[in-house]
Amino acid sequence: xxxxxRRTPAAKLWGGRFxxxxxxxxxxxxxxxxxxxxxxRHDIAGSKAHARMLARQGLISGEECDxxxxxxxxxxxxxxxxxFVFRPDLEDIHMNIEKALTERIGAAGEKxxxxxxxxxxxxxxxxxxxxxxxxxxxxxLAEVQKGFVTLARRHLGAVMPGYTHLQRAQPVLLAHHLLAxxxxxxxxxxxxxxxxxxxxxxxxxxxAMAGTxxxxxxxxxxxxxxxxxxxxxxxxxxxxxxxxxxxxFCCTVIQLHLSRLAxxxxxxxxxxxxxxxxxxxxxxxxxxxxxxxxxxxPELIRGKTGxxxxxxxxxxxxxxxxxxxxxxxxxxDKEPVFDALDTVRASLSITAELLGNLSFKTDRMRAAASGGxxxxxxxxxxxxxxxxxxxxxxxxxxxxxxHCQERGQELTDLKLxxxxxxxxxxxxxVLEVLKVEGSVNSRLSIGGTARARVEDALRRLxxxxxxxG
Length: 469
Hints:
By secondary structure, this protein is mostly helical. Helices cover 60% and strands 4% of the residues. The chain has a two-stranded antiparallel sheet with strand order 1-2. The protein has a two-stranded antiparallel sheet with strand order 3-4. Strand 1 (159-164) and strand 2 form a beta hairpin. It is elongated, with a radius of gyration of 31 Å.
């Protein structure tokens, strides 16, 4: 009796084992081409390196390799021209490109997938993509840093209140405050560099999960693609998304730093602080209240932080509990990475613009730094220099502050005789100590707000960031 005829869905490159075509609902549910199409350049670059290796190892002929390379170049040109038709039924960028290649050059295209799997192929594509995008983010971060340094140089002498617990604490230079963000973003740049260094390992050759018995040369492919090393364990390779999670963490911290800046701009732009004016081009109005000027850009940057953080949390939960090696769950890696990356890139770009459209109200800032007993710590330090133990000095100054509060006075309102009634160690030189400028310029410890220290920091940062003139 003859075997029952089998219906093989020829459209699927993996369909030989299946008797029925994939349900339309399954095709829609499993397709990723609508977002992973952005990996086309990286997929094509990986395929070209792989083809050259196959030819070098005698697994395909030189003529077949030439046809593959030419075909891939044509596909790349069509994608960039917007004429390539992506087919959702082919699931992803890998299958779309391979199918198009085979239709263009025939059987040679079917040989391209020799000794590789989509499991190691997707890891390669994503690593190539994040390596490139990581460097792009580092350049954007540097532009934001330059914006802060430029503002700091412009407002070097301006004094403002420094805050703890959102309460006025000690006077600082506005430049010192601005340069704090430069340090945050420098850590972000370093973190991205470390992340890129760890992800910059070539995964192709792990195949589905156990490697391949064919005589491939992984080191050759790594050299072709600019990877300094190849992955060490095929099972770890195809199931590994540490590099994507780490990249998302880097994005999240960048966005958190932007959110902290955004919060300060929202506060400072309000009448209660009134420290900064944001350019009209970067604000919006109210549909009902004609007088309103809303800081929508900082608010949106702050709001998008939840989105980026959510992407990180989502991927962490996707990977949690996955057994080795590859599982289709890992298809969920790219959307959060892409969305977070796009969000952070856009936030950095608009921040770089925004910094060039801020006007600081330095007179208002200085007035705010003159009240609220901002130099109380300086008075305590003065007593310490007179050989009083700090805890005693703290208590003396606390009593002086209480005395002022009872009378509605500031420290600078007190006469020398009044100050001396609290401690005989206080002398006429204390009056200079209680001035805002004296307080700021006394902070000469490394990393302090003294003008001399801030000028040193500015020179260092301007040199590192290539700012001249």
